[in-house]
Design a protein that fits this description.
Shape of chain B: elongated
Oligomer: heterodimer
Helix content of chain A: 25-40%
Largest interface: A-B, 20 and 23 residues
Number of strands of chain B: 2
Largest sheet of chain B: 2 strands, antiparallel
Largest sheet of chain A: 3 strands, antiparallel
Order of helices and strands of chain A: EHEHEHH
Strand content of chain B: 5-15%
Number of strands of chain A: 3
Strand content of chain A: 15-25%
CATH superfamily of chain A: Ribosomal protein L30/L7
Number of domains of chain A: 1
Radius of gyration of chain B: 19 Å
Helix content of chain B: 25-40%
């Protein structure tokens, strides 16, 4: 199921109440927040109201908050060859 | 001395707002980029909905009526109609919130 990935790039401060209401309805509370919404005409209509403020991409799956955070995490710089606990266990 | 309420010439009374009457070429460049960004978002919405077999009246009207950045005249990109201004045109940076609103069409003939 395709989703719209919507990121608020420009703040809605000082814009009409209706525009700010659309941001609230989509769950965009402050700048650089990302939300996923299914591709429907109602969501597309909401995006049309705030098209100057957001960045929109069509993606295959929606990520939750934890997954988005993991995606941002840099590589740790090492990899685990084998665990030490396997060595310590007595042979069967 | 410092901060938002420091004593500067514009703040100490009188009419001294030094906003240039025309855009710089860098402001014009960023304005074009913003227009293109909105075009790309409309295109994204259109292709995503078309893939679902849906369409939207608002999008159909936008595509039919609104010129894209390439199709717009420089006059419409950087200036807007204003009935109070001599020759009926003012630079777009005089428009309140001009970097966050779409202003593409102007009255025909002006």
């Amino acid at each position: 199921m395709p989703y719209f990935r919507i990121t608020l790039m420009r703040s809605g401060i000082g814009l009409p109440e209706k525009t700010q209401g659309v941001l609230k309805a989509l769950g965009l509370r402050k700048r650089m927040t990302t939300v996923y919404h299914p591709v429907t005409s109602s969501v597309a209509g909401q995006i049309m109201r705030i098209k100057e403020l957001v960045d929109v991409k069509e993606v295959g799956t929606a990520l939750n908050k934890k997954q988005m955070r993991e995606a941002r995490r840099p590589a740790p710089g090492y990899y685990v060859e084998r665990r030490g606990t396997a060595e310590l266990e007595p042979p069967q | 001395m410092f901060g938002p309420f420091r004593l500067t010439n514009p703040l100490s009374g009188g009419l001294l707002w030094k906003i240039p009457w025309r855009l710089s070429r860098h402001q014009k460049y960023r304005q074009r980029e913003r227009l293109r960004k909105v075009d790309s978002i409309v295109a994204t919405l259109d292709t995503a909905l078309a893939r679902q077999g849906e369409s939207m009246r608002k999008l159909v009207r936008w595509k039919a009526e609104m010129p894209t950045e390439e199709e717009m005249l420089p006059k419409d990109k950087y200036t807007v109609f204003d009935r109070k201004v001599k020759r009926y045109r003012k630079a777009i940076h005089k428009l309140p919130k001009w970097t966050r609103v779409s202003q593409r069409l102007n009255p025909p003939g002006f």
